[in-house]
């Protein structure tokens, strides 16, 4: 007597089969995503702050109208960075980036030791060409470091 093995067995319903195929696809896609996306060791979050040490937000002398702000850098991550990888930006009170020689004539003096920016680095910004009574109060200094995400920022004036 020959027995039919496949005759009495029932298959999985089409709905269950579809759900299983979708679940397997999701698990495989998630596994592939985790294998492919490896965190770049060069991309890390910047941690620190800019502390306003002194500011003359407005000069009222008739010959050279200008303003000055001095910041000190405190950095925890990275503890220091090459000066060439550091970019300082100045934002006005409305959040627009100021471009030197277009929006103001001034200078940025960065006092660094061994070409490294880190805790204790001083940044002096001097703005020339301001009109009498014009102020840089409310301007913000933003620091970006190449290879890191995030910024360090400090506000000029109260």
Write the layout of secondary structure elements.
Elements: H1 14-36, E1 44-45, E2 47-56, E3 66-77, E4 80-82, E5 86-91, E6 105-111, E7 116-118, E8 122-128, E9 140-145, E10 148-149, E11 152-155
Parallel strand pairs: 1-10
Antiparallel strand pairs: 2-3, 3-8, 4-7, 5-9, 6-8, 9-11
- Helix and strand run: HEEEEEEEEEEE
Strand composition percent = 35-45%
Helix content: 10-25%
| Record field, number of beta strands | 11
User: What's the number of helices?
Assistant: 1
Overall number of domains? 1
- Give the CATH topology: Immunoglobulin-like
The value of Rg in angstroms is 30 Å
**Quick one: biggest sheet?**
4 strands, antiparallel
Termini separation (Å)?
Answer: 98 Å
Report on the structure:
The structure is a single chain. The chain has a single domain (44-155), classed as Immunoglobulin-like (Sandwich). It is 15% helix and 39% strand. It is built from 1 helix and 11 strands. It starts with 13 loop residues before the first helix and ends with a strand. The mean pLDDT is 77.
Please provide a brief summary of the model.
The protein has 158 residues and is mainly beta. The chain contains 1 helix and 11 strands, in the order H-E-E-E-E-E-E-E-E-E-E-E.
């Amino acid at each position: 007597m020959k027995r039919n093995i496949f005759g009495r067995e029932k298959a999985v319903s089409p709905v269950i089969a579809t759900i299983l195929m979708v679940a397997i696809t999701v698990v495989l896609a998630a596994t592939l995503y985790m294998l492919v996306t490896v965190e770049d060791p060069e991309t890390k979050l910047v941690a620190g702050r800019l502390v306003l040490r002194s500011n003359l937000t407005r000069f009222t002398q008739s010959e050279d109208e200008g303003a000055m702000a001095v910041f000190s850098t405190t950095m925890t991550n990275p503890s220091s960075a090459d000066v060439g990888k550091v970019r300082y930006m100045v934002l006005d009170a409305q959040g627009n980036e100021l471009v030197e020689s277009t929006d103001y004539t001034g200078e940025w003096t960065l006092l660094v030791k061994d070409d490294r920016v880190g805790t204790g680095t001083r940044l002096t910004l001097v703005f020339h060409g301001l009109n009498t009574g014009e102020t840089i109060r409310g301007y913000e200094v933003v620091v970006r470091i190449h290879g890191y995400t995030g910024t360090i920022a400090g506000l000029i004036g109260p």
